[in-house]
Amino acid sequence: MSSTDCYKILSIDGGGIKGLYSATILEQFENKFGPIHQHFNLICGTSTGGIIALALAAGIPAADIVKFYTEKGTKIFPHTKSWKRKLHEWKSIAFLSKYKNDQLKNALQEVFQNKKVKDCISDVLIPSVNITTGKPYIFKSDYIPKYTRDSERSLVEIALATSAAPTYFPIVDLMTNEGLHQFVDGGLFANNPSLYGIQEFLANKEEIGYKDYCLLSISSLHEGTAIPVSKKVRRPFIGWKEQLISLMIDSQSIATHFHIQYLREFAGGEYIRIPSAEMTGNERALIALDLAHKASIQLMMEKGRQMAEKWINDDNISLFFEDKSGEVSA
Questions:
Q1: Is 127:196 a contact under the CB 8 Å cutoff?
Q2: What keywords are assigned to this protein (predicted)?
């Protein structure tokens, strides 16, 4: 199938500072194929993936997104020393969220300034959770007549809402048509938002006007949380600590991948998933949702470049970067 027949979807997983891995892969693709937003009709992202998705859709170069993580990461997640991390881990269990979101908000305002959803060049789909209603909430571009809700929403607001990971960042207040509501991280239900990108195409196929979809899904780095067999089976929340969130988001992302593989037998479509890189035990010790240590940042970029090198010349990847003549962009 030619890319001209495809509604092209890019999906980017959540994962905190580990979004640097995904951003580095996309930077390498952009270096070869040109601006990402020129090649995709819809860009989906959750949490840190939502930040990346909004930036790409707004035409911000992937290299600038990589710089966002490398320069702002230690300010957003300041606790790199083990004893400080332990202290704030206990604080997040019993008292307050582990971090304020002041630094994150300031960094996002530098990137997005006053841009709104209507300013995006590609359409976007960004999951969050409205805890006031207890339901998922997906921010979308107003790209067909029935969508009229989010066009005037600022990108900073959406980025904060999709990345407000419980126990890590504060709940986000946003005005809605029903009044003031509160939002948290979309990773609670869609850390890998790929299925929602497919659903968007299938639900609006006639209005969208393409024969089929082509989906490129980018994983973040998985921490490989595996808990040894233990006699302590009645484990309280304090006994899970941060393993619980890591296990939840990684297993959810992997499950979504399996769902899509199954779905394709009935719904068709083209699908490529660029997975998490393999890591040694020592490397995994440097990777966590909020670990922005210098060595961690170097490792994530190294793994991202390695994964991009593995995929960048793959014929299946080229499908996403064809121009209308069928030629691969250079």
A1: yes
A2: Hydrolase, Lipid degradation, Lipid metabolism
d(CA 152, CA 318): 34
Amino acid at 256: T
Collapse the DSSP code of 203 into the 3-class scheme (helix H, G, I; strand E, B; otherwise coil) and give the result.
helix
* Separation between Cα atoms, residue 108 and residue 47, nearest integer Å: 13
pLDDT value of position 86? 54
Task: Name the percent of the chain lying above pLDDT 90.
Answer: 70
Distance CA 316, CA 30 (A): 16
pLDDT category at 1 given cuts 50, 70, 90 is: very low
Q: How far apart are the C-alpha atoms of 12 and 6, rounded to whole Å? A: 19
Size of the chain in residues: 330
Contact (Cβ atoms closer than 8 angstroms) between residue 66 and residue 301? yes
Residue 237 structural domain: 6-321
Q: Structural domain tally of the chain? A: 1
Is 326 among the domain residues?
Answer: no
Max mean pLDDT among 30-39, 262-271, 284-293 falls in: 30-39
In a domain, 329, yes or no: no
Q: Active-site residue numbers?
A: 47, 185
Angle at the Cα of 218 from the Cα atoms of 264 and 28, rounded to 5 degrees = 130
Asked if the structure places residue 239 within a domain, the reply is yes
Is the predicted pLDDT of residue 268 greater than 90, yes or no?
no
What are the structure tokens assigned to 242, written together? 């941060």
Q: Return mean pLDDT, the chain.
A: 88
Q: In the Cβ-directed half-sphere of 35, how many Cα atoms lie within 13 Å? A: 12
Question: For the CA atoms of 147, 151, 155, 161, what is the dihedral angle to 10 degrees?
Answer: -50
The stretch 218-226 carries a mean pLDDT of 81
Residue type, position 198, single letter: I
Q: Which helix (H) or strand (E) holds 119?
A: none
22: domain CATH number?
3.40.1090.10
pLDDT band at residue 247, thresholds of 50, 70 and 90? Answer: confident
Residue-wise DSSP of 216-265: EEE--------PPP-S--S--HHHHTTHHHHHHHHHHHHHHHHHHHHHHH
Mean pLDDT of 159-184: 95
